[in-house]
Structure prediction request, 266 residues.
Amino acid sequence: MNRHLSIDMFHALIHLARESDPELQKKNYQQLAALLERSYPDSLKAQVNAITRLRCELIQRGMLQETIELEKVDREHRSTGVQPDVLVEGDRAYTRLPFFRDADRGIPDEIYDVTTALQDRHQLDSVTVDGSVLKITGHAYVRRVSQDAAATELVLRERGSKVEHRFPTTVLATPELGAGKEDGGKYRYPAAGFSAEIDLANAVDGSSPRGCGTSWSLCGSRTWSRRSGSATGGSPRCSPHRRRTSSPTARRTSPRPCTTRTRTAT
Prediction:
């Protein structure tokens, strides 16, 4: 049913917006509303994307003109490749699609919630283990979300206990990030880069955590986080010799046996 709502409904509304006969347009719109009444339970709302939720909400409210306006905006987004801005408040993120917090329409914020749908971009550029010292560089950011340059951190995660130990990192300038085709170059992430250097032999209370892995994370407002990637890193307890990886695919080729996970938060 998710596919029918996100794809078939989309095509149906394209034809609806182009319909020149007002009476036929209204009749078809009512048929869509009747279909949703039978096939769109509350449990499905959380499974569809934000624009599909908004389409369904407008149809269920009988807001024909708003539905047509939404399709015009969506068509523009598709043609330009630029998605709506994202507002982060507390531990939630909302897409700024039409009628967001419009007092006259009264659409609930939950319709626009994209907290779990945001896409991250991350890359581990280099991992070096020299004796007991781990050095790591890379970048990470969340698409369409402003970042706090002071919120990047390195995390050591014990494999057995899952206990995490966090350490500060140094921000690296990344003025080129966001300048490509994605989102039409509208968003930039000039402080998404990071570097970290930590002596694993004395990382936690003067000792090395047993069976630890490494992970790097990006925090914007520091109110929510999620896993966003994986890589491998070295542990002096397991591999005491110098090893170095420096390439865009570092997370697939850097030394084992400890694993690296990317945790992204905004």
Notes: The chain has six helices and twelve strands. The longest helix spans residues 22-39. Residues 218-224, 226-266 have pLDDT under 50 and may be disordered. Helices lie at 2-18, 22-39, 42-45, 50-60, 64-80, 250-253.
